[in-house]
């Protein structure tokens, strides 16, 4: 009885996907009551804010881009604070405010034959599933989103989740290549403002990222080559300022002194004579930080990430970073300088220092280290570290760096299908693609 009272009180089935509607305007028994266009902004902002929030903070601490220096962040940084209760909010947000709302919106879009809306929703669903399974491995999906008909969904293997991801991306591309339907995707799309060409490129970028996780390098290269052609095409969210500020900015405002720039990354950039970018990153994490500002543009996936994928595949194919691969390597770095509003002269100066790797002599480590720097605060750095071993980090405490997240405490308590807490070891239980 306690279980059902708890769920009803919160209007959440914290057995994850059983969330029945965080939007008070959404009637789960009559989803067509809400126009699809009205659902888009809230879904997209919830997705961006979840990814740019605790997801980014934890992955940035685990990869030693930042360090936790006070209060709970010290425990996170030293791994002792990574307990199941710390993952409740993130799990709820990704399943409740994003995936469940996507299911309702897709039902509406399908009913109204809104192909472009449905295509974009499929791509957002694929992205969300990927970022969930990348840190939690097996997750509920096929038997989820059924409300009271199934408040304890089973867990699907990561292999099946990824197959669904790739299928959703392919379906999204096909729908976006079709006629839009009665309503055209437009300004309600706060990510790409209804630009279907960019949605298609985004799908290929996401596919390239996922294929890299499974060492499917040539397929990843083919997808990357169909993706973004410049940093103006990035897939992200533009925060609008103090009243709707960047998640990291809000954290720094409310918890000044909890997190700071990491000495490991500082030393790495100093050794590479990468002082201009370092000057932007290496600031006090407070409201005066000029990079982590209120109206920051946060990418969910970017041109510079895709360019580093192209460079890595080139090296893995034995080319040592030549031709297209080396050009992509330079593009990724140059785009990073542009992200920081640094002048072209600073990029050229960096290329000319004696530590910079030359064409034909690139290694995987050099590609990943440059990507690590270029993707500051981007969670994909955590996936790169786990799949490549770079950067070669020393654990902050103990003998190992966590390779996954714990399931939410509410999953352990309320979903009997969740792997038992004492059977999940965040230091040794790698996710499927990282075996």
Question: Which class of secondary structure composition applies to the elements?
Answer: mainly alpha
**CATH C-level:** Mainly Alpha
Helix-strand string: HHHEHHHEEHHHEHEHHEHHHHHH
* Form type: globular
Average pLDDT, rounded to a whole number, is 92
Largest β-sheet summary:
2 strands, antiparallel
Number of contiguous helices = 18
CATH architecture designation: Alpha Horseshoe
- The Rg value, from CA coordinates, equals 21 Å
Taking pLDDT < 50 over at least 5 consecutive residues as the criterion, the unreliable ranges are 1-32
Q: What's the helix and strand layout?
A:
Layout: H1 2-10, H2 36-52, H3 54-62, E1 66-68, H4 71-77, H5 88-111, H6 115-136, E2 139-140, E3 155-156, H7 158-176, H8 196-213, H9 217-225, E4 235-238, H10 247-254, E5 259-261, H11 263-271, H12 275-281, E6 297-301, H13 303-316, H14 324-339, H15 344-351, H16 364-374, H17 380-388, H18 409-414
Antiparallel strand pairs: 1-5, 2-3, 4-6
Describe this structure in words.
The protein has 435 residues and is mainly α. It contains 18 helices and 6 strands. Strands 1-5 form a two-stranded antiparallel sheet. It has a two-stranded antiparallel sheet with strand order 2-3. Strands 4-6 form a two-stranded antiparallel sheet. The longest helix is centred in the N-terminal third of the chain and has 24 residues, at 88-111. The radius of gyration is 21 Å and the shape is globular. Mean pLDDT is 92; it is low at 1-32.
In a nutshell, what does this entry contain?
This protein is mainly alpha-helical and 435 residues long. It has helices spanning 2-10, 36-52, 54-62, 71-77, 88-111, 115-136, 158-176, 196-213, 217-225, 247-254, 263-271, 275-281, 303-316, 324-339, 344-351, 364-374, 380-388, 409-414; strands spanning 66-68, 139-140, 155-156, 235-238, 259-261, 297-301.
């Amino acid at each position: 009885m306690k279980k059902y009272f708890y769920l009803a009180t919160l209007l959440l089935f914290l057995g994850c996907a059983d969330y029945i509607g965080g939007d008070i305007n959404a009637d789960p028994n009559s989803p067509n009551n809400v126009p699809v266009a009205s659902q888009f902004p809230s879904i997209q902002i919830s997705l961006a804010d979840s990814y740019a929030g605790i997801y980014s903070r934890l992955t940035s601490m685990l990869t030693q881009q930042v360090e936790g220096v006070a209060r709970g962040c010290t425990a996170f940084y030293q791994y002792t604070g990574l307990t199941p209760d710390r993952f409740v909010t993130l799990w709820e947000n990704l399943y409740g405010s994003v995936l469940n709302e996507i299911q309702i919106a897709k039902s509406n879009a399908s009913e109204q034959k809104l192909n472009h809306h449905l295509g974009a929703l499929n791509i957002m669903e694929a992205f969300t599933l990927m970022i969930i399974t990348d840190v939690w491995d097996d997750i509920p999906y096929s038997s989820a989103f059924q409300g009271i008909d199934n408040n304890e969904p089973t867990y699907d293997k990561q292999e099946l989740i990824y197959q669904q991801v790739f299928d959703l991306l392919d379906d999204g591309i096909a729908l976006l290549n079709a006629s839009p339907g009665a309503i055209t995707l437009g300004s309600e799309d706060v990510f790409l403002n209804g630009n279907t060409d960019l949605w298609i490129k985004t799908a290929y970028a996401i596919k390239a990222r996922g294929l890299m996780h499974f060492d499917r390098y040539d397929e990843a290269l083919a997808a990357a080559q169909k993706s973004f052609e410049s940093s103006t095409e990035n897939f992200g969210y533009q925060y609008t300022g103090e009243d709707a500020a960047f998640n990291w900015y809000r954290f720094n405002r409310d918890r000044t002194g909890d997190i700071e720039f990491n000495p490991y990354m500082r030393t790495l950039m100093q050794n590479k004579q990468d002082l201009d970018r370092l000057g932007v990153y290496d600031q006090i994490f407070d409201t005066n930080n000029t990079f982590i500002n209120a109206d920051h543009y946060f990418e969910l996936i970017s041109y510079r990430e895709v360019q580093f994928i192209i460079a890595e595949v080139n090296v893995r194919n034995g080319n040592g970073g030549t031709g297209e691969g080396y050009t992509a390597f330079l593009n990724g770095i140059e785009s990073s300088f542009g992200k920081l509003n640094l002048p072209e002269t600073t990029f050229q100066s960096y290329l000319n220092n004696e530590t910079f790797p030359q064409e034909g002599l690139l290694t995987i480590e050099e590609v990943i280290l440059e990507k690590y720097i270029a993707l500051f605060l981007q969670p994909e750095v955590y996936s790169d570290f786990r799949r490549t071993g770079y950067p070669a980090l020393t654990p902050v405490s103990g003998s190992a760096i966590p390779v996954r997240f714990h399931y939410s405490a509410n999953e352990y308590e309320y979903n009997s299908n969740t792997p038992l807490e004492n059977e999940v070891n965040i230091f040794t239980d790698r996710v499927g693609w990282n075996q």
